[in-house]
Amino acid sequence: MKSPALALLALLVMTGCTTSKLTPEHADPVPANRLYGFTQKVGSDDAKITVVRDGGAFGSGCGFVVHIDGKRAATLNSGEVASFYVDPGEHVISVGLSGIGLCSAIDKTTEFVASQNQKRIYRLSTDLNGFYINPYID
């Protein structure tokens, strides 16, 4: 009798330690006071970069700070989405925790080449091993 109950408890604990994937349409927009840059299209051929953070309780106490080319772009909380504009060419997007209290860790970084008028979506997720920034896949 103890084994099935223990297995169920372990499953519930592990399920609570991951985040839930959200589509950009179902995520809440980041409030304007947490958008710091890259929010305006400057050139007619700028690429649009959308970053969506998973929903769920795990890791929700820490904001994720997004940087583009080393400049702070936004802070995303759980279940939020923000879009940014960059000129065509090579760029670096990085994500780190807000750095407050227990919310500190090494940034995760990825490089990308933006094409003219391209649209890219990135997903921010969390599990027991840390947090990730990856291309969004339906």
Mean residue pLDDT:
84
| β-sheet strand percentage | 35-45%
Helix content: 10-25%
Instruction: Write down the Rg.
Output: 17 Å
CATH topology: Immunoglobulin-like
Low-confidence stretches: 8-16
CATH architectural type: Sandwich
Q: Can you tell me the overall shape?
A: globular
- What is the strand arrangement across the widest sheet? 1-5-2-8-9
- Overall domain count: 1
Give the strand tally. 9
Helix/strand/pairing category: mainly beta
Top CATH class: Mainly Beta
Distance between the termini: 40 Å
The SSE string, one letter per element, is: HEEEEEEEEE
Our count of helices gives 1
Largest sheet: 5 strands, mixed
Keyphrases for this structure?
1 helix, globular, five-stranded mixed sheet, single chain, 10% helix, 9 strands, mainly beta, Immunoglobulin-like, four-stranded antiparallel sheet
Topology, element by element:
Blueprint: H1 2-15, E1 28-29, E2 47-53, E3 64-68, E4 71-76, E5 80-86, E6 89-97, E7 108-114, E8 119-127, E9 130-135
Parallel strand pairs: 1-5, 2-8
Antiparallel strand pairs: 2-5, 3-4, 3-6, 6-7, 8-9
Overall description:
It comes from Ectopseudomonas oleovorans (Pseudomonas oleovorans). This is Lipoprotein. By secondary structure, the chain is mostly beta strands. The chain has a single domain (2-135), classed as Immunoglobulin-like. Helix content is 10%, strand content 42%. The chain contains one helix and nine strands, in the order αβββββββββ. A hairpin with a 2-residue loop joins β8 (119-127) and β9. The model is unreliable at 8-16 (pLDDT under 50).
